[in-house]
Amino acid sequence: MANKTLPFSQEKLKRIVSQYGTPFHIYDEKAIRENARRLTQAFAWAPEFKEYFAVKATPNPYLLKILREEGFGADCSSLAELVLAEKSGITGENIMFTSNDTPAEEFMKAREIGAVINLDDITHIEFLEKVAGIPDLISFRYNPGPLRSGGNSIIGTPEDAKYGLTKEQLFHAYKIVQDKGVTRFGLHTMVISNELNPDYFIETAEMMFDLVVELKEKLGIKIEFVNFGGGIGIPYRPEQEPIKLEYVGEGVRKAYEERIASKNLHPLKLAMECGRVITGPYGYLVTRALHKKEIYKNYIGLDTCMVDLMRPGIYGAYHHVTVVGKEALPKDHVYDITGSLCENNDKFAVDRQLPRIDLGDLIVIHDTGAHGHAMGFNYNGKLRSAELLLKEDGTVDMIRRAETLEDYFATLDFSKL
Ligand SMILES: Cc1ncc(COP(=O)(O)O)c(C=O)c1O
């Protein structure tokens, strides 16, 4: 069983807490950079490989800048994410815009900054043409439907997912945009989420490579890039194994040689848009035990709540919990670790075996570096925490301050009461 460790000592964490207070998310720059390089290295064999970091996972410009420096682009799905990518220095075709049910202003912004537009539906061709015009390069999101099993509870089985075009629509769509003068074509899919079986990603690549061949044979279209989406899982539980990125890269290489290189379709650019596997394991939610409650069960109430991390509440997701300074003590207590929302699913852990927790103990919730702070909301008027960066040189910067009551009330005009 892997040990879930922290990138700081207890003394260092206490110093950070005394400066910034709790709660906060803190991200480990060194680990993020090393991990980004591992992904790039796994696809170093490819004629061209680009990871477009899924901005929705951790939409913080300081992290986007770090990832840009590592050669990553940005996968955006909203106006705000496009602006964030732009402000982080990620420009033009280094941005993929993969949206659904897209408002006009989002297509307009994507066109304005020259992002690669990846359409989610055949009807969006006409919509895009009307609101922003058709660019030279267009990509479509493929939904393989029941042809492809292996979806999971977050994204669902492909046939139940709202995303993408059917195969028949896909062929029709390329023909339509070709007739409208499009000269460059991309192909995209995203069929799984938080998946730890590496073979699924290789199978997805095989499926997509076969489609590239078919598009060439049937429509004469030469696809310029294939984007396999994100969805690589992380070991939230200590007993789980991380995906070996090298294994995925090698499996995709074999599929590329067999299905693309041998068919004279080389060079084909490859892309992914992972979020979770890039930053997820390198973020930590640091909180304090505020209350202890003993009724039918034993509860530890934290000074945070699900506005800072809603995955356990909405998916029943496991996040590892460390009681700082008590790592070596026996886990001889059973607690539900709760937040302060008036919702009974506001629990970070249920029936968790932990060492005895005392009021004031620092509690760290692991693996919050993706889809953590980002998913926050303001129900109950709760305010989201700050985000900190543990830099490579060991110093700490605040990269987003905590929300204030003024932020919460900023959309109200009390003077008209
Ligand atoms: C279109 C798209 N791309 C990429 C991602 C990133 O997924 P993950 O963080 O699991 O890699 C998502 C997640 O919701 C998505 O919807």
UniProtKB/TrEMBL annotation:
Alphabetized InterPro entries for the sequence: Ala_racemase/Decarboxylase_C, DAP_deCOOHase_LysA, De-COase2_N, Orn/DAP/Arg_de-COase, PLP-binding_barrel
Keywords from the named record: Amino-acid biosynthesis, Decarboxylase, Lyase, Lysine biosynthesis, Pyridoxal phosphate
Pfam families listed in its UniProt record: Orn_Arg_deC_N
Cofactor(s) the record lists: pyridoxal 5'-phosphate
Listed GO MF terms: diaminopimelate decarboxylase activity; pyridoxal phosphate binding
Residues annotated as the enzyme's active site: 342 (proton donor)
Pathway: Amino-acid biosynthesis; L-lysine biosynthesis via DAP pathway; L-lysine from DL-2,6-diaminopimelate: step 1/1
EC primary class: lyase
EC number of this enzyme: 4.1.1.20
PTM annotation (N6-(pyridoxal phosphate)lysine): residues: 56
Positions of the Orn/DAP/Arg decarboxylase 2 N-terminal domain: 31-279
Record's subunit section: Homodimer.
Binding-site list for substrate: 276, 311, 315, 343
Binding, pyridoxal 5'-phosphate: 231, 273-276
Primary gene name: lysA
Catalysed transformations (reactions): meso-2,6-diaminopimelate + H(+) = L-lysine + CO2
Role description: Specifically catalyzes the decarboxylation of meso-diaminopimelate (meso-DAP) to L-lysine.
Protein name: Diaminopimelate decarboxylase
GO BP terms in the entry: lysine biosynthetic process via diaminopimelate
Family statement: Belongs to the Orn/Lys/Arg decarboxylase class-II family. LysA subfamily.
Record SUPFAM superfamilies: Alanine racemase C-terminal domain-like, PLP-binding barrel
Organism of derivation: Desulfitobacterium metallireducens DSM 15288
